[in-house]
Amino acid sequence: MLTRKRWIFAILAILPTLAIFSWMRIYPIVDTLRLSLHKWDLLSKKKPFIGLDNFRELMSDQLFLDALVNTSIIAFGVLIITIPTAMVIAGLIHHRSTSRFSAFFETAIFIPYIVSLVPAAMAWKWIFDARLGPLNAFLSIFGISPQPWLFDPVLSVICMIILCSWQALGYAVLIYLVGFKSLPVSLYEAAKLDGATARQSFWHLSVPMLKPITLYVSVVTLVSGFNVYAQAFVLASDSQGAPGRQVRVLVLDMLENSFRNYRIGYAASEAVVLLAIVLVLTLIQFTLLREKGR
Predict the structure, then answer these.
(1) Which of 212, 127, 208 is nearest to 175 (CA)?
(2) Is residue 42 one of the residues assigned to a domain?
(3) Which residues contact 127 (CB under 8 A, 6 or more apart)?
(4) How far, in Å, CA of 104 to CA of 106, rounded?
(5) How far is CA 19 from CA 10, 32, 256, in A?
(6) Mean pLDDT of 30-56
(7) What are phi and psi of 240, to 5 degrees?
(8) Has residue 8 been placed in a domain?
(9) I need a labelling partner for 127 at 20 to 30 A (CA). Which of 8, 68, 120, 183 fits?
(10) How many Å is the Cα radius of gyration of the chain?
(11) In sequence order, what are the beta bridge partners of 95?
């Protein structure tokens, strides 16, 4: 009887939080799935059911396909750069934790993550500026001609990867530092007695034991990469603030279809595709890292 009362009390205690979570998180997802099967212009009360027509149109929409390709390249590019770089930097900071400069390095690396996206993107837009940017000025020292960083489709994607990696690195390093501090020191001492070098201890001890951290960081980084928007909008916008077409990403394409073209159902189908991609990639990451961890 006492156990039953505790269960009832626990359920009643979490009901308000569960209700708020369902309203704020679950309901929007379900409603987006519903809207993706309808045609709606945001203004009309009528929402005719059109089935999978929105999804069929997506497959022939070149703007959507370009946005999908750009977003995928950016997300995986940021993932490939961030994970190994963050692990190495965190390992170096942890290894030299007694240094009086360690706190400075931790703060300096984490600052880009907490800086507002728009000012940070504006600063990088100036860096990538083809005429006045310091990047081209630096490259000119080595005889490299000025590059149209934000006007070339390939170079603009590279710029996005650099900017997003710079922002994601601080959070990844912080999480890896927490992971390094939780590792047993006795294993490293035993490895050192056996003649293992610092590099060997890193690859054969730290990397395997940090796989749960790597899984978490990789999922968060990949999801953030697929949801990138503000950086692309600022880098690709012209002097009047109008968004350009060079760095077209999925979220930007969704917002334009929603609030510029008033195609809510079509934008909802894009959101469903994005949700499916993120879910599939997350499941793949969990599967791969669990298999390697056995």
Answers:
(1) 212
(2) no
(3) 133, 134, 135
(4) 5
(5) 14, 19, 31
(6) 88
(7) -90, 0
(8) no
(9) 68
(10) 24
(11) none
Between CA 71 and CA 285 the distance in angstroms is 18
Total domain count for the chain? 1
As a whole number of angstroms, the distance between CA 292 and CA 240 comes to 50
Q: DSSP assignment, residue 240?
A: T
pLDDT in tens, 211-228: 889 988 998 999 999 988
Contact, 120 vs 141, CB < 8 A?
Answer: no
Q: How far apart are CA 72 and CA 91, in angstroms?
A: 29
- Contacts of residue 11, defined as CB under 8 A and 6 or more positions apart, other chains included, come to none
In tens, the pLDDT along 144-164 reads 888 888 888 888 899 999 999
Per-residue b/e over 8-35, b at no fewer than 16 CB within 10 Å? eeeeeeeeeeeeeeeeeeeeeeeebeeb
**Number of neighbouring beta carbons within 10 Å of residue 71:** 27
Cα 158 from Cα 83, distance rounded (Å): 17
**Which amino acid is residue 114, in one-letter code?**
I
Instruction: Report d(CA 214, CA 52) in Å as an integer.
Output: 37
Domain that holds residue 207: 54-293
The SS3 call for residue 49 is: strand
Tell me, yes or no, whether 6 lies in a domain: no
The half-sphere exposure of 69 on its side-chain side, counting CA atoms within 13 A, is 10
pTM of the model: 0.85
pLDDT tens for 257-293 read 888 888 999 999 999 999 999 899 888 887 876 655 5
> What's the CATH code of the domain at 240?
1.10.3720.10
Tell me the C-alpha distance between 40 and 211, whole Å: 45
For tokens 């000119």, what's the residue? 140
Q: How far is CA 189 from the centre of its chain?
A: 36
